[in-house]
């Protein structure tokens, strides 16, 4: 990793692949989800540095974080749970960009498993960092154990560059809308299925409730 990525908390990889992934995510997602995706990468990178992780590809980490919510894009087919649909769309994009099949598969796995606690953590460094970065962007709601990874100064810079824009509510809205459209999108006990059930029974998900008192808020 180049030094400026470690010293500048909001620096992004400057490669053709990273620029293409940014363009895809920015145009496919609303600003609240796009900002969440980029912040997840920035938090994942800080986590990697603090944990002393060396065995990961920063470009793949960026691609997995930047594209992890592609399954919620309005133009998608929405015929399966959003994590898998997003992984499939990311894999199609990365294959078209010429990435080796092994790298494409690694990103697919990290995206498909990012909501799978206890599984992602056993599937290698990329899966761990993607889940940790996403978890950190929820301010501790998802149980990330790396809250101390981010200083107040780093968090302020990241949120100034990529504001939250009521991210948690926007994300749950998108997941629930997709889940309600087709039972295949919300298998029982999956994250989409549980969020849909909670919204229907309580009017609000526990994730949204917890976000209000999390480190970053909604």
Describe this protein with a few key phrases.
mainly alpha, globular
> How much is the average pLDDT?
88
Query: What are the secondary-structure elements, in order, as H or E?
Result: HHHHHHHHHHH
Cα-based radius of gyration, to the nearest Å: 16 Å
Helix content: 55-70%
| Inertia-based shape | globular
Helix and strand content put the structural class at: mainly alpha
Number of helices: 11
- First-to-last CA distance: 31 Å
Question: What ranges have pLDDT less than 50 throughout 5 or more consecutive residues?
Answer: none
* Proportion of strand residues: under 5%
Description of the molecule:
- By secondary structure, the protein is mostly helical.
- 60% of the residues lie in helices and 0% in strands.
- The protein contains 11 helices and no strands.
- The protein has helices at residues 3-7, 16-28, 31-51, 58-66, 82-96, 101-112, 125-137, 152-161, 167-181, 191-202, 206-211.
- The protein is globular and about 45 Å long.
- It starts with a helix and ends in a 7-residue tail after the last helix.
- The model has no long low-confidence stretch (mean pLDDT 88).
């Amino acid at each position: 990793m180049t030094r400026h990525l470690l010293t500048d908390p909001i620096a992004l990889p400057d490669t053709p692949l990273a620029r293409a992934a940014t363009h895809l995510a920015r145009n496919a997602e609303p600003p609240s989800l796009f900002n969440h995706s980029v912040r997840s990468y920035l938090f994942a990178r800080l986590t990697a540095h603090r944990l002393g992780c060396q065995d990961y590809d920063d470009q793949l980490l960026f691609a997995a974080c930047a594209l992890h919510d592609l399954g919620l894009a309005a133009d998608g087919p929405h015929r399966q749970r959003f994590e898998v649909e997003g992984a499939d769309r990311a894999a199609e994009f990365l294959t078209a960009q010429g990435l080796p099949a092994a790298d494409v598969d690694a990103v697919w796995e990290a995206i498909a498993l990012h909501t799978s606690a206890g599984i992602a953590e056993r599937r290698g460094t990329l899966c761990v960092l993607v889940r940790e970065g996403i978890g950190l962007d929820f301010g501790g709601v998802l149980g990330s154990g790396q809250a101390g990874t981010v200083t107040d100064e780093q968090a302020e810079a990241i949120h100034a560059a990529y504001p939250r824009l009521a991210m948690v509510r926007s994300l749950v809205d998108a997941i629930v809308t997709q889940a309600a459209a087709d039972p295949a999108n919300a298998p029982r006990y999956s994250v989409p299925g549980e969020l849909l059930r909670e919204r229907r029974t309580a009017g609000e998900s526990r994730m949204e409730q917890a976000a209000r008192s999390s480190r970053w808020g909604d």
